[in-house]
Amino acid sequence: MRVSYRWLQEFVPVELPPEELAERLTLVGLAVEAVERPWRHVEGVVAGRVTAVERHPASDHLKVVRVETGGAALTIVTGAPNARAGMLVPVALPGARLADGRRIAAADFRGVVSEGMCCSADELALPEPPGPRGLLELDPQEGWRPGMDVARALELDDAVLEVELTPNYAAHCQSVLGVAREVAALLELPLLPAERRRGPSQPAPASWPADRPRPPRVFIEDEGCARYVARFILDVRVGPSPLWLQRRLQAAGMRPISNVVDVTNYVMLETGQPLHAFDLDTLRGGLIGARAARPGETLRTLDGEERRLQEGDLVIADAEAPVALAGVMGGAATEVTERTRSILLESAWFDPARVGRTARRLGLLSEASGRFEKGVDPSGCRWVADRAAALIQALAGGTVPEEVEDAYPRPARPRRLEVEAARIRGLLGVDLGDAEIASYLRRLHMDVRAEGGRLVVTVPTFRPDVTEPVDLVEEVGRLYGLNRIPSAPLHGAPGRGGRSARRRALDELSRLMRAAGFTEAVTFTFHPEERLARLGLPPHDERSRPIAVANPLSEAQEVMRTTMLPSLLDVLAHNHRVRRTDAALFEIARVYMGADEVAAGRLPQEPLRLAFVASGRLAPRHWREGEGRAADFFTAKGVVEAVLRLFRVEDARWERAREPFLHPGRAAYAAAGGRALGWVGELHPRVAAAWDLEGRVVAAELDVEALLAAGRALPELRPLPRFPAVARDLALVVDLATPAAEVERVMRQAGGELLRSIELFDVYAGERLGAGRRSLAYRLVYQADDRTLTEDEVEAVHGRVRQALAGELGAVLRS
Amino acid sequence: MDEPTVRTGWREELERARREALAAIARATSTAELEEVRVAALGRKGAITAFLRSLSQYPPEERPQIGRVANAVRDEVEAALDAAAERIGQEEEARRLLEETVDVTLPGTPVATGHAHPLNTVIREIEDIFLSMGFELAEGPEIETDAYNFEALNIPKGHPARDMQDSFYMNEGILLRTHTSPMQVRFMQSRAPDLPVRMITVGRVYRRDDDATHSPMFTQVEGLLVDRGVHLGHLKWTLEEFARRVYGEGARIRLRPSYFPFTEPSMEVDVSCTICGGGGCRTCKGTGWLEILGAGMVHPRVIRNGGYDPDEVSGFAFGMGPERIAMLKYGIDDLRLFFQNDLRFLEQF
Ligand SMILES: [Zn+2]
Predict the structure, then answer these.
(1) Cβ A470–B299 below 8 Å, yes or no?
(2) At B165, is the pLDDT very low, low, confident or very high (cuts 50, 70, 90)?
(3) CA–CA gap between residue A342 and residue A212 (Å, rounded)
């Protein structure tokens, strides 16, 4: 909300510099985002009467005017089309400044020296009147006289406080009065009486003219309206508002329209109570009131739109049809226009939720609907109506008969709360006396009675946000000052602090991946559905049925990921686009499985995954190392193997993976203990192309929960060897179709306990061996825990290994 | 045998052997050459060795004298050999080291290491601070029920925070959590009736916003402490301690009353500007303060929803955005950089 400081000063005698007040208000919960002074530059501008207008001797569009500014008579050149003798206009004297900071000096305009400048509204940062642009006309009826200082008369030294209201303060601070109450409570100042405000607060007494039809009676047929006050102003003259009022509306961010409408807005800004003015003569059947919209009803609103009403809409209706959407917008048929002579002024309380719903549905959020939605004070409807009627009368003339319609079936009762003073002390951690607590609450217009240690607090009806004892704790805390509360070290038993074993393992995992050359990514967990389609997963694959977001902002949030791959490929694609094709990225994060669960109203699974992608070189080209290490199946598998070692997964099994998005010949599944751990492989060229990725792309996705489950918690320790080891090399030729894992299995089985390690140090396939054959060279290490192995023992066990290889795999042994 | 001949002969013979050996030693430039000299003089077939072996040819009464002179010659040659070996060894080592000299400005063999994401670095730092204060790390679901995300947190139907515009929904009852606060209730429920409750949770949260200052997914850190006699002073101390550990001993905090449905009193917490120290600068928009987190005393209804009696216990909660803290810490000006994962950005950390 935007609050004019000058306006505020009519309610509370605050004298602090606006910036300081802003700071203080911020610290009691009214966050002042900015202090603006749109008119601060204006100076040296006075009212002047145009006494003569002549044509400029050397120009068709310029005029030479004579202006009298209370003593001095000046010659001024102007281009304004509306200059005419007799009008009062703002005159910037030489040395004056305009709103944009421009200084005015006497200047020669084609041979005529202009001794100043006549100003438009815009040049003084005031609202432009409707119609063609021209000089701002100052109305003598508003008290303007030649020589008057414009900046002083219009309070152009004013500052505007931009207040950001949190929902709890929104209701009672959505007005100058509300902010003034806060200022008064904060600075321990009184609220000023109504006479200090600009314009009357009570209309001149009058009775209903006998020759006029009786005023309509008010009805309430819907609980959505708790109170409906109607006041009548007869024989008004609709026209523009005085400048001072226009400027204040402008300061608050509203546009002046006409005196009657402007007053309804002005008083709303002042009091927080939205008002609506109807053209009294357009209302039919001697009735007006609140009721629910009836099926099929429509209403043409002020903006000219024909609105189809719905059940639940609260309307204001006369005897025949709806005339307004309660709290949202008036109807076109009953609108106040230049021809309006008499007014019905509505001041009412409407249900916040009902107003909010209708306003939102129709896209008609306004200053008024917003205030109803936050909650207005039903106790204020009557005096606010009086104030507005008096102000309309002051600005637009007319009579305000004492006949008032005020339907208020169940008057609001101030809420009573009871709270232990000790509880307030206990939650704030400050040793406040009961009396001090009571004094803070009284400053907020609450009535406080102490009963033993209990405080019985009566909350004024303008504080709908204070509904329970803890609200009072907050009120006391903020007025006392949160920053004055002494800080106190934590005491008592510590919680179960520290990282869990699981978290430590995840941190280790992240460290390992970085040590392996991968950079950590944080990616969006949703993606377009089309990304999933690129992977070509079959329908029975669980990953092809993602959890959908019902209301995405764009396709980017269509579905929650079931695999990390699309997110990471998007990241890789971005890096390829910026020519970073040597790229290695990983992420440890969640995927989301269980569209059926969600459909059934249950929460899905969110398993944690480690995934990585890489392309180009994993290690850079180097003058000594040559071309670097390229990302391919084996470099990727090596990373996965390091991960398995980290988690102490000792019994991992590898087999060829069948994933539609992976290279059919270069992809593997890892499993341990009968549980799948994940996959690693090179991307299928078609999938790489779908992401515009060039060259080999490797990727892996591992189930972190499975890794944690499969690995040993603690290492299995063996004593350091006490007897020497013996190494034997072995080269063999087998069919290409025989997996290395099978060769190793046979060796282990035949080598038994004495075979301690197997190192594959060469793989060769070539013409020499014949098609479909390959040679594998191993170093086997034999060792016993309890003795030095003899040559014979080693020969015996090595012989068994050779035999087994030949016998079981048909291997041809070469050494 | 002619005695004098013999007498002068052995002296000359020894002298010649000595001179030749010493000259050869002086000429030697390598360990190998020196070894040749040693073999020629003192080896099994060396000149001096041969002479010593031939002592028996001399008359017995002369042998002791000849032997003494011969031994003296051998000792002298051996000493010269040792000295030369030392000298040549040093020269050879110096030569070898010189030959092995490399251009130390050539780049070393690369050890490719990746980089931690700045967001995760900041998150770990925040976690460590609260872990050391006895807070326990907890994890919770990102796809959350309306009941936990809103109802349990005192955000009734019709509250502005529930507006469809703000949340991503799966269906009417299930949505992407809009904050980590549901973990307050989940964690209390998992612990009730044990005390104390000290929780820290970190995770991804989601809001329907996407512009330069809002991301549809971002992260939050949430803390909760529930115990007997917990008051605002404890919250204040905890946050001061946090600010000091993140921003240094001189860091001060400022509390501004604010509003969250699940805490009361609620507050925004500012830390004295890390750039200007409080004097006012562009980062803090001249205020000297930077808003870093929201906090408050846990609302009695939330405590009750967590399974505790608000008349018996009280608590505080706080929440912060690691993105904001990382942006301030590293001077990052665009939120989107965190989720774009451009290596040119990430590799700077
Ligand atoms: Zn600063």
Answers:
(1) yes
(2) low
(3) 11
Chain B: residue whose CA lies nearest to A480: B257
**Residue A791: CA atoms inside 13 Å, Cβ hemisphere, count?**
0
Q: What is the DSSP letter of A791?
A: H
Asked if A250 and A256 count as a contact pair (C-beta separation under 8 A), the reply is yes
Amino acid B4: pLDDT: 42
Query: Would the CA dihedral through B54, B56, B61, B64 be positive or negative?
Result: positive
Nearest Cβ partner for A550 among B169, B216, B267:
B169
Instruction: Give residue A133's pLDDT.
Output: 85
**Cα–Cα distance measured from residue B211 to residue B334, given in angstroms and rounded to the nearest whole number:** 10
Parallel/antiparallel/unpaired status of strands B174-176 and B169-171: antiparallel
| Mean pLDDT, residues A47-73 | 91
Using a CB–CB cutoff of 8 Å, tell me whether A493 touches chain B.
yes
Q: Is the pLDDT of residue B180 over 70?
A: yes
* Nearest alpha carbon to residue A34 among B136, B148, B285: B285
Query: Residues A163, A164, A167, A168: is their CA dihedral positive or negative?
Result: negative
Q: Which of B137, B143, B284 to mutate to test the interface with A (most CBs of A within 10 A)?
A: B143
What pLDDT, on a 0 to 100 scale, did the predictor assign at position B5? 45
Residue of B117, B216, B228 lying closest to A557 (CB–CB): B216
3-state secondary structure of B90: helix
Given a contact cutoff of 8 angstroms between Cβ atoms, the answer to whether A220 and A406 are in contact is no
> What does pLDDT average to over chain B?
91
Q: What six digits make up the tokens of A261? A: 């409408």
pLDDT tens digit sequence for A592-614: 999 999 999 999 999 999 999 99
Distance from CA of A455 to the nearest CA of B (A): 17
Interface residue B144 vs chain A (CB under 8 A): yes
Environment class of residue B120 by beta-carbon count within 10 Å: exposed (0-12), middle (13-18) or buried (19+)?
A: buried
What sign has the CA pseudo-torsion A186, A189, A190, A192?
A: negative
Interface test mutation site (partner B, options A490, A499, A514, A525, max chain B beta carbons within 10 A)? A490
Residue B266, sorted as left (phi over 0), alpha (psi -120 to 50) or beta, turns out to be beta
- The pLDDT tens digits of the residues spanning B285-307 come to 888 999 999 999 999 999 999 99
Sign for the CA dihedral angle at A536, A537, A540, A542 comes to negative
Domain locations in chain B as residue ranges? 10-99, 118-346
The continuous run of DSSP H or E covering A781 comes out as: strand A773-782
Using CB atoms, which residue from B171, B236, B264 is nearest to A485? Answer: B236
pLDDT at A673: 87
pLDDT tens sequence across A183-216: 999 999 999 999 999 999 999 999 999 999 999 9
d(CA A364, CA A372) in angstroms, rounded, equals 13
Q: What is the pTM of this model?
A: 0.87
Q: Pick from B117, B173, B240: which is nearest to A522 by CB?
A: B117
Does ipTM come in above 0.95?
no
Report the pLDDT averaged over residues A107-112.
Answer: 90
DSSP A593: B
Residue for token pair 């009657």: A260
Mean pLDDT, residues B143-159 taken together: 92
A578 lies within 8 A of chain B by CB: yes
Name the CATH superfamily, with its identifier, for domain B118-346: Bira Bifunctional Protein; Domain 2 (3.30.930.10)
* Nearest by Cα to A515 from B124, B107, B116, B125: B116
Read off the tokens for B187.
């964690």
* Residues of chain A positioned with their CB less than 8 A from the CB of B338: 522
- Three-class DSSP category at A582: coil
Q: Is B278 helix (H, G, I), strand (E, B) or coil?
A: coil
- Which of A:458-487 have CB within 8 Å of B? 468, 470-471, 473-474, 477-478, 482-483, 485-487
Task: State whether A29 and B256 contact (CB < 8 Å).
Answer: yes
A780's enclosing H/E stretch is strand A773-782
